[in-house]
Amino acid sequence: MKNLIKFIMVMSVLTGMISCDLDPIEENRLDFDFILTNPNAAEGVLLNGYAGLVNQYSFSEAATDDAVNNILNNNFKRMALGELNAQFNPAARWGSFERVFWVNRFLDVIDTGETQWSRDTLINTMFEMRMKGEALALRGLHHYYVLQAHAGIGQSGQLLGIPYYTEFIEPDGNFNVPRLSFEASVQAIMADFDEALNLLPTDYGLSAGQVDPWYSELENFDFDKYGIVNDNFFDLRISGRIVRALKARLALFAASPSFLDSQSYYDMAATNAAQILNTIGGTAGLDPTGNEFYISDDNIQSSESLWRGSIGGNTFNYEERMFPPSINGNGEINPTHNFVMAFPMQDGFPATEANGFDPQNPYNNRDPRLEKYVIVNGASFGAGGDIINTGVGGGNDRLDSIPEQSTTTGYYLKKLLRPDVLINDNGTAQGQSHANVYFRYTELFLILAEAANEIGGPDNPVDGITARDVIAAIRNRAGITQPDNYLASIASQEDMRELIRNERRIELSFEGHRFWDMRRWGLPLNGPAKGYFFDGNNYAELPSVEVRNFQPFATYMPIPNSEILKFSELEQNMGW
């Protein structure tokens, strides 16, 4: 953090977030006084807070029971095999503090009141309100990223959070500050979110009758002027709706068994989630195609995305990494048989032989999401409709036929990939557009389901929505016909908890959630990564294709050792 420079470099960043026209200038190292007098430069400082947002493309599942990474030097593979330590931590997020200092510098700008965003007093006031709200929300969000990755039981035996920075610190300033308690860290983030909620529009591009009171009640309010500040041109920036969803996510994390195990935080998670979900009609508002939000431009722009970046140009890098070798991919991420067996049967019952599962016809009569998310042996896939065989006779796609390229589990990844990408034999490709997604409505529905069940069981209503309602809607969208007899048989909080966790595992798969969910739930980290292989006549389970080797204290990730060495006030998590 001491590498932060005293002078702010104006960056026209965030091509994926917003278009922002900055006039070229002779010097790109600008002092604070210049920033105060140049609104474009000042906004450039704020926009740095939008860099580093966590999206769905981390593929950290390779360090969980859901997947294996084929690349031998992949960082998540190395982590899973036992290399995780305070010097090597691919999941570290301590660097998010850099974004915190950018937004703190911007808040310094706002607090002086010297930057003129508009000659019109009302417009100027509204710009100050909105952008201060953005900065506070982003400060809370980047602190959350650090908290999620580095909170834990300290050497003292206390549950600790992180340092919380509310001011810009000069390079020669004091960065040597202790970690707050875990709950104090959560409360500090919540305080930033709450202040942001009183400054941000609930949504951008609202009609005159929908304007939030903190704007509409301003002296001499004018809706046309309001539109200049909060038009839907800005709708990829953080809004009040997004902040309330982030509050729900943070509260669920805090309430989880590995942390506070707190009914009050479950209440907070459920209430904030329900308030948003009822604005879209509750479970009736679940996007019917939301479980394939990535497969086309129309799906990316659908109502499933609560917060996303802009749709980029045509690319094929994810597909090249993940497609099977026979269609010119590198087969990098291989879902495990553990993950495949998480998908129920078509009627909603778990995939066991007692419920009709046939180990020699393993993909028959299964939850339709399995076909959407995983390339199984014998599946048709790709723009050319190729048949992918991972067993005997599969050629390059056969299990272990090409080191670091063909599958090690008997499966290839399908989720998140554009099926209309075509990679040619000569290395050229027909790419498609993609977008970073930061929050989906399905996640918010699952937050509500988990929290509502923990508060009062399967049929406990929160603003009229129960956990059973949510799971029924999600399974109905998946193609599991409702009423669902298995869901109807779930009577206890414990059984509903397991079902919700399984639905979350499926619905949010390969979007970077499982790695953190296993830790906040306190699940075992060293379970075997299983495969499934067709030998030409029969299928056989491969009981362990990769031996996981996490330390017993790896539920809580380490503070980077370099920070511990520099700052005596920082307390390392236990075991590291």
Helix content: 25-40%
Coarse shape: globular
Spatial arrangement of strands, main beta sheet: 1-2
Rg calc: 25 Å
Total separate domains: 3
Helix/strand/pairing category: mainly alpha
The average pLDDT is 94
Beta content = 5-15%
Question: Segments where pLDDT lies below 50 for 5+ residues?
Answer: 1-28
The strand count comes to 16
CATH architecture of the largest domain: Alpha Horseshoe
Give me the CATH fold name of the largest domain: Serine Threonine Protein Phosphatase 5, Tetratricopeptide repeat
CATH class of the largest domain: Mainly Alpha
Characterize the main sheet.
Answer: 2 strands, antiparallel
Task: Give me the number of helical elements.
Answer: 20
Brief sketch in words of this structure:
Helix content is 37%, strand content 9%. It is mainly alpha-helical and 576 residues long.
Question: What would you note in describing this structure?
Answer:
With 576 residues, the protein is mainly alpha-helical. The chain folds into three domains: 8-51 and 93-238, Serine Threonine Protein Phosphatase 5, Tetratricopeptide repeat (Alpha Horseshoe), CATH 1.25.40; 317-437, no CATH class; 438-546, Serine Threonine Protein Phosphatase 5, Tetratricopeptide repeat (Alpha Horseshoe), CATH 1.25.40. It is 37% helix and 9% strand. The protein has 20 helices and 16 strands. It has helices at residues 32-37, 39-47, 75-83, 96-112, 121-150, 182-197, 213-216, 223-230, 240-255, 263-277, 297-300, 317-322, 337-340, 368-373, 441-456, 467-478, 485-489, 493-507, 514-521, 561-566; strands at 8-9, 29-30, 67-69, 152-153, 159-160, 305-308, 333-335, 374-375, 379-381, 386-388, 412-413, 422-423, 429-430, 437-440, 529-534, 539-546. The strands form eight sheets. The protein has a two-stranded antiparallel ribbon. It is globular. The two termini are 21 Å apart. Residues 1-28 have low confidence and may be disordered. InterPro entries: SusD-like_N, SusD_RagB_dom, TPR-like_helical_dom_sf. Residues 315-576 form the RagB/SusD domain. This is RagB/SusD family nutrient uptake outer membrane protein. Residues 88-204 form the SusD-like N-terminal domain. Belongs to the SusD family.
